Amino acid sequence: MKKIIVFLADGFEEIEALTVVDYLRRADIKVDTVSIKDDLEVIGAHDIKVISDKKITEINKDEYDGLYIPGGLPGATNLRDDKRVVQMAKEFNDSKKIVAAICAGPIVLDKARVLEDKKATSFPSFKEKLENLKEYEDDKIVVVDDNVITARGAAVAVYMALTLIEKLCGEDKKEELKPGIQQDNVEKYFSIKY
């Protein structure tokens, strides 16, 4: 069974974290939500309290096939400023394990220098904060470059989840979980100007 870490810090974006957890568990992927705090309770950006499965001090990183960084503020900056999370992102990337982040989350991968030879995306206002990447993809909602996956934000959390499922379990498993979702409809939605 595949196994992945979803890191949580106070101020995490609830949709970006919990949508991915939900979909991965539906795909029979073992997910550990991991608090970087000294306790399991983590409070999201919209004051939703979540009880994590584990604290960062309780995990054995060698048991996991990948890690996922949700965005949200100050959640993403809290994760970026945690040396353990940054080091783990670097080690997972060096081992070619999946390293994924959404919205503001790619700032963690940038600090770990995971993006140096990668194409990536993020929430648009974080584009300038990604100083160590090969190429920024403005026109994609999810970008896959080898073992690194990045996505724009909460509105595409389902697509991030499906991409992770495909990388971990293959296209057939992804197809089981995506009825009713059509990529062209999402692209039309995101082309609307407000």
Which properties best describe this structure?
194 residues; alpha/beta; 7-stranded mixed beta sheet; two-stranded antiparallel sheet; 7 helices; globular
What does this molecule look like?
- This protein has 194 residues and is of the alpha/beta class.
- Helices cover 34% and strands 21% of the residues.
- It is built from seven helices and eleven strands.
- It has a seven-stranded mixed beta sheet with strand order 5-2-1-6-7-11-10. The protein has a two-stranded antiparallel sheet with strand order 3-4. A two-stranded parallel ribbon has the order 8-9.
- Helix 1 links the parallel strand 1 and strand 2.
- Helix 1 runs parallel beside helix 5.
- The longest helix has 13 residues.
Secondary-structure map with pairings?
Layout (H helix, E strand, L loop, with lengths): L2 E6 L5 H13 L3 E6 L5 E3 L5 E3 L2 E2 L10 E4 L5 H6 L2 H12 L3 E5 L3 H6 L7 E2 L14 E2 L5 E4 L2 E4 L5 H13 L1 H7 L5 H9 L3
Parallel strand pairs: 1-2, 1-6, 2-5, 6-7, 7-11, 8-9
Antiparallel strand pairs: 3-4, 10-11
Helix pairs in contact: 1-5, 5-6
